[in-house]
Amino acid sequence: DVKVTQSSRYLVKRTGEKVFLECVQDMDHENMFWYRQDPGLGLRLIYFSYDVKMKEKGDIPEGYSVSREKKERFSLILESASTNQTSMYLCASRSGGNEKLFFGSGTQLSVL
Amino acid sequence: AQKVTQAQTEISVVEKEDVTLDCVYETRDTTYYLFWYKQPPSGELVFLIRRNSFDEQNEISGRYSWNFQKSTSSFNFTITASQVVDSAVYFCALSEEHGGATNKLIFGTGTLLAVQP
């Protein structure tokens, strides 16, 4: 079975902390994505990567950065967490331009 | 710019009723792809269907069917004889062709479907 694995299901952090959300896929996919999901707003794209060390901003990149040093791993970094970054974070991957996305189970991040 | 609108925030039906989830999209491209995903209470989004803009044939998969109409920019999803296990949030999404590997998938805000026993 194909798999996208997010390192934590629940995470609680304090304001100002640096936070790392990790995502690993075992499908040799080129593209990887980070979305955040908030009630009433659906899924909003934060960043995506179409190849190793390549990244593009999504619709809401402010306050976030990403890292993709290896094909299978895509990390989302909150440099200085703030309460408005409390959200569900979803990682996804796909093999090519318009193929379907495979999603991880999500990380519910609470910033206190 | 791309946009996906799911006007129904929440729908509640009784088991065995039919239900239609609406999706309206906006795009300037002539080539694009439409998707539906299901998010059950466990949280992981599950792919249901992908349709490209040149294929307007309706699709049926068991109790699920999809109606794609370019004239109204809609891609509606119908569940026939709904079951409690259909309770989930359903997302419609759009991807344009022009970006190739950098294509973004834009999601609607989702429709929460509650099927009561």
Overall description:
The complex is a heterodimer of chains A (112) and B (117). Chain A is mostly beta strands and 112 residues long. Chain A has no helices and eleven strands. In chain A, the strands form two sheets. In chain A, strands 2, 4, 5, 6, 9, 10 and 11 form a seven-stranded mixed sheet that branches. Chain B has 117 residues and is mainly β. Chain B contains no helices and twelve strands. In chain B, strand 8 (64-69) and strand 9 (74-79) form a beta hairpin. The interface between A and B is medium-sized, with 29 and 28 residues.
Show the helix and strand layout.
The complex is a heterodimer of chains A (112) and B (117).
Chain A: E1 4-6, E2 10-13, E3 19-25, E4 31-38, E5 42-51, E6 54-57, E7 64-70, E8 73-78, E9 87-94, E10 102-103, E11 107-111
Parallel strand pairs in A: 2-11
Antiparallel strand pairs in A: 1-3, 3-8, 4-5, 4-9, 5-6, 7-8, 9-10, 9-11
Chain B: E1 3-5, E2 10-14, E3 19-21, E4 24-26, E5 32-39, E6 46-52, E7 59-61, E8 64-69, E9 74-79, E10 88-96, E11 105-107, E12 111-116
Parallel strand pairs in B: 2-12
Antiparallel strand pairs in B: 1-4, 3-9, 5-6, 5-10, 7-8, 8-9, 10-11, 10-12
The outline of chain A comes out as globular
Radius of gyration of chain B (CA) equals 14 Å
* Count of discrete alpha- or pi-helical segments spanning 4 or more residues of chain B: 0
Mean pLDDT of chain A: 93
- Mean pLDDT over all positions of chain B: 91
Number of strands of chain A: 11
Helix proportion range of chain B: under 10%
- What is the string of SSEs of chain B from the N terminus onward? EEEEEEEEEEEE
Low-confidence stretches of chain B: none
| Oligomer class | heterodimer
If interface size is counted as residues with C-beta under 8 Å from the partner's C-beta, which chains form the largest one? A-B, 29 and 28 residues
Tell me the number of strands of chain B. Answer: 12
Largest sheet of chain B: 6 strands, mixed
DSSP helix count of chain A? 0
What is the helical fraction of chain A, as a range of percent? under 10%
